[in-house]
Write a structure and sequence with these properties.
Elements lengths: L2 E5 L14 E11 L2 H11 L3 E7 L5 E7 L5 E6 L8 E8 L2 H10 L7 E5 L4 E7 L5 E7 L3 H5 L14 E8 L2 H11 L3 E8 L2 E8 L6 E6 L6 H7 L2 E5 L2 H9 L14 E2 L5 E6 L5 E6 L14 E2 L5
Parallel strand pairs: 2-5, 6-9, 10-13, 12-18, 14-17
Antiparallel strand pairs: 1-7, 2-6, 3-4, 4-5, 7-8, 8-9, 10-14, 11-12, 12-13, 15-16, 16-17
GO molecular function, one term: metal ion binding
GO biological process, one term: L-methylmalonyl-CoA metabolic process
Organism: termite gut metagenome
């Protein structure tokens, strides 16, 4: 992939940098042990469309881009380490990625000296380290590249959903996550839930958008497989039971699990779970509660794991 660099540095005495708007979930990237199987899962089984393949500087396949809608996509990459969790990184869209880089630098967070420009997809971006080892990428789309020029294209009717509503992250310490996502970036809590007096799930919504991050809290050591399943994405649909019936009639790619039974979560929303051969979880959730009323937040003590 051809990369260009743009740079600007914060100089003492300049106007204090402001946080630019964060408007949506851009993409989520996963490593896979079997690229063909994973692509069959997302394309043949779930109905999405591959839009490009990107090679690394040595000419080896680096990324396969699978389109969700006109502003969201998945990046599927051959694994680097067979023992690692499957989530590579996740990205949120901002109105001004360079302003975001300067803002984080001003706040004392480690950021690269320059942003990267992706000529294939048409986006400027940079990565930073979020709490608990998560790789967070900020992106800004422009009028060039496949994202902008591909609007309205590669959106087959076979897609199970046209909305990727949230990315979920295994989170051992909610306070640390809150300091980064809420205090620094402006995300705000919209719901929390759990069982037996313990809070296990907390949703934080974008400050200038509808997409969310879900924190999956835990209080004991988790295996690589467990963390991989916790780090999931969610697609929204009108009728999850009807979708499940449709999926049961399709050929399931080898190594993938049969769709789970429909359950109603503590947020009063019906959902199912899918797992590909890597153990990557795809949550399918209805876009409304069972009774049409807003979900009721629960009370309790958030789970916390301190090694």
């Amino acid at each position: 992939m051809a990369l260009c660099m743009t740079a600007s540095v914060y100089v003492q005495g300049q106007t204090t940098p402001k946080r630019p708007p964060l408007t949506g979930l851009s993409h989520v990237a996963y490593y896979t042990k079997n690229l063909d199987s994973t692509l069959k899962f997302f394309e043949d089984y779930l109905g999405y469309s591959e839009i490009t393949r990107i090679n690394d500087k040595d000419g080896k396949l680096w990324i396969v881009v699978v389109k969700i809608n006109d502003s969201q996509f998945l990046e599927i990459m051959p694994e680097k380490d067979a023992s690692a969790i499957r989530l590579s990184h996740f990205a949120f869209e901002t109105a001004d990625v360079e302003a975001m880089r300067l803002y984080l630098a001003y706040k004392g967070y480690k950021v690269p000296p320059k942003t990267n420009y992706d000529e294939v997809l048409g986006m400027t971006s940079f990565h930073t380290s979020a709490p608990h080892g998560h790789d967070f990428e900020f992106v800004q789309y422009d009028k060039n590249g496949l994202i902008a020029k591909g609007k309205g294209k590669n959106l087959p009717a076979t897609r199970i959903s046209d909305v990727m509503s949230h990315v979920a992250l295994a989170t051992p310490n909610l306070d640390e996550a809150k300091a980064f996502y809420e205090d620094l970036l402006g995300y705000h809590e919209i719901w929390r839930g759990g069982s037996n007096g313990a809070i296990q799930w907390v949703y934080y919504q974008l400050p200038e958008g509808k997409d969310c991050i879900e924190y999956l809290l835990y209080d004991r050591p988790q295996s690589v497989g467990q963390i991989t399943a916790m780090n999931h994405i969610c697609f929204e649909v009108d009728d999850v039971a009807a979708l499940r019936e449709a999926l049961l009639k399709k050929r399931l790619p080898e190594g993938c699990r049969v769709p789970s039974d429909v359950v109603t979560g503590t947020n009063n929303i019906r959902q199912i779970s899918l797992f590909n051969a890597d153990g990557i979880r795809i949550e399918i959730m209805e876009n409304h509660t069972v009774d049409g009323l807003p979900p009721t937040a629960q009370t309790g003590v958030p789970l916390k794991y301190i090694p």
